[in-house]
Structure formats: C-alpha cells, structure tokens
Design a protein that fits this description.
The protein is α/β, with parallel strands linked by helices. It has a domain of 88 residues: Peroxisomal Thiolase, Chain A, domain 1 (3-Layer(aba) Sandwich). The chain is built from three helices and three strands; from the N terminus they run H-E-H-E-H-E. A three-stranded parallel β-sheet has the order 2-1-3, sandwiched between helices. Helix 1 packs across helix 2. The protein is globular. The protein starts with 28 loop residues before the first helix and ends in a 22-residue tail after the last strand. 25% of the residues are buried.
C-alpha cells in the first residue's frame, strides 16, 4: 500500500538523546514533550489551529500518562486536538506515524501531530525520579 501523505520539510524535530540516567534523568518525558512541541511549533510559525489530530506514543508509563494525548496536547497549547495513545514496545514510533498518516489519508484531518516520548531505563520501572515527592512504586 502506498500513501500520499507528506511531512513538509522542516515540520519535524527531535530533542537530543541523553545517556541513561544522564542529563534528562529527572525530566518527566510527557511534560518535556509538551514543552518541546509548543516551542517547536512557535519556532516554525505553525499555528496551533493548523493541527487537527494527534497521536501520542510512549512505552514506559509515568505520572499522568493514563490521560495520554489529551493531557500532553493541552499542556502544549493544543487542547483542541484528540487522538490515540499508542504503546507498542520496539514499534511505538512507526505505529504512531502510521496512525497519523492513516487519519490524514482517510480525510479525517489535514494535519496530524505524531509525538513520541519516553524515559527509558534498564528495565520498565513504574516510578518517579527521586526527590519529586511523588509516590514511588516498589
């Protein structure tokens, strides 16, 4: 199957990758993703209204991740969009892109935001970084 949907030049970005337990170890990945989306859309002068749909992908649950895309989108200034949250180990990114493309190909939206974020450790731990004052799961 071939798709006609395109990612316009410059309408994509990635934050720097950091070593496990490195510079970003204490960042909440969903909040960091929301911050980055707002900043990058503004930098590219892409108005929030241009985004009509979104897909959120991540693998490791953390605080507030239950609320998925609506929570992240609201924090990014895109409270008007909805869409699925996808968690598929080792294929989350490609599945998020496919979900965004299929929404556009079906004519359900003109522009979809595919957003993936994670905080990976040596194993999937359901806990918050130390010092956050939040409940720590065993």
């Amino acid at each position: 199957m071939s798709y006609k949907t395109e990612i316009p030049y410059g309408a994509y970005w990635s934050t720097p990758f950091a070593r496990w337990q490195g510079a970003f170890a204490n960042l909440h990945s969903l909040e960091f993703a929301a911050h980055t989306v707002g900043k990058e859309l503004a930098r590219r002068k892409i108005p929030a209204e241009a985004i009509e749909h979104g897909v959120l992908g991540f693998s490791v649950p953390q605080s507030h991740s239950f609320y998925g895309l609506p929570w992240v989108a609201g924090r990014a200034g895109l409270g008007h969009i909805a869409g699925p949250t996808i968690m598929q180990a080792c294929a989350t990114g490609v599945r998020a892109l496919l979900a965004a493309v299929q929404e556009a190909e079906a004519g359900m939206c003109r522009a979809s935001l595919a957003l993936t974020c994670d905080r990976i450790r040596t194993a999937s731990l359901l806990s918050e970084p130390e010092g956050t004052g939040r409940h720590r799961c065993p």
